[in-house]
Amino acid sequence: MYESEVRQLTLTLIDRGMSLRAVHKSTGISRATLRDWLNHPEKTGQRASCPRCATLPSLPEPAGDYAYLLGLYLGDGCISVGGHPAKGVWALRIACADAWPGLRSECIAAISAIRPRNKISTQQRVGCTEVIAYSRHWPCLFPQHGPGKKHKRTIELAPWQQDIVGERPGDFAGGLFHSDGCRFMSRVRRPLASGDRWYEYPRYMFTNESRDILGLCGQALDRLGVSWRYSRRNTISVARGEAVARLDEFVGPKY
Ligand SMILES: [Zn+2]
């Protein structure tokens, strides 16, 4: 398959009076293909464009959906070769817990907002549904893609990603907590003269093996004014009442 720019350039040459034979000789493109392009000019430029590898790169849009999807990807997503390697297509896979069906639809909605023309499928696994979307451009959109586990390598946001996450920290934190976090009720015992009383408080936890990803989560929470601390080496905890209420605005209970 030829890139749309080559197509357009070639059609311009023919437009200017160059013969098919001459174009074929100078470009190596077969005459059958050239004839097909001439007969179907509407196909020119049909390949889905990518904001990052375009001649003039721009930011993926909508920014909120991108920030959310980046959070999902960094939390618990992966990018791998989709199909035959020669095709250059990549599969983005995000595991969505079945206990949280709302997450699956939010994930699908964010992917279709960012890559409206790409195919999305789902695959049932034990306890979760994997949402899979194919595109040539996942590595452009998520340059954190690389060989090996995310916690075994440095995860840094590109400057353009930092801009988006800085603008949309709530969406980014939403993606991180939806994929690798949880909101749960913590029971606390208060001993009283009349006997023990139990109280329940909602809390958030985000668990990840990558120090870098934990750091990005902490930065987003700082931007939102949500107080947090490390409750374990690999776990960020949000436990204070007003911090939980603030985070509820962006993450919310599982549904
Ligand atoms: Zn691209």
Task: Give a nutshell description of this structure.
The chain is an alpha+beta fold. 41% of the residues lie in helices and 24% in strands.
How would you sum up this structure, described in words?
41% of the residues lie in helices and 24% in strands. The protein has 255 residues and is an alpha+beta fold. The strands form two sheets. A four-stranded antiparallel beta sheet has the order 1-2-4-3. It has a four-stranded antiparallel beta sheet with strand order 5-6-8-7. A hairpin with a 2-residue loop joins strand 5 (181-192) and strand 6. The mean pLDDT is 89. The structure holds zinc ion. Zinc ion is lined by residues 50, 52-53, 137, 140.
Defining key terms:
255 residues, alpha+beta, 4-stranded antiparallel beta sheet, 10 helices, 24% strand, elongated, binds zinc ion
Layout of helices and strands, plus pairs?
Blueprint (H helix, E strand, L loop, with lengths): L3 H12 L4 H8 L3 H9 L23 H14 E5 L8 E8 L3 H14 L5 E6 L2 E8 L2 H4 L17 H9 L1 H12 E12 L2 E13 L3 H14 L4 E4 L2 E4 L2 H8 L7
Antiparallel strand pairs: 1-2, 2-4, 3-4, 5-6, 6-8, 7-8
Bound molecules: zinc ion.
The site of zinc ion (ZN) has 5 residues, from loops.
Helical proportion, percent range: 40-55%
Helix count equals 10
Biggest sheet strand line-up: 1-2-4-3
Beta strand count: 8
Low-confidence stretches: none
Instruction: Output the structural class.
Output: alpha+beta
Percentage of residues in DSSP E strands: 15-25%
The backbone outline, from C-alpha atoms, is elongated
Please outline the major beta sheet: 4 strands, antiparallel
Which small-molecule species are bound to the chains here?
A: zinc ion
Radius of gyration, in Å, reads: 24 Å
What is the CA-CA span between the terminal residues? 43 Å
Overall pLDDT: 89
Instruction: Give, in order, the helices and strands.
Output: HHHHEEHEEHHHEEHEEH
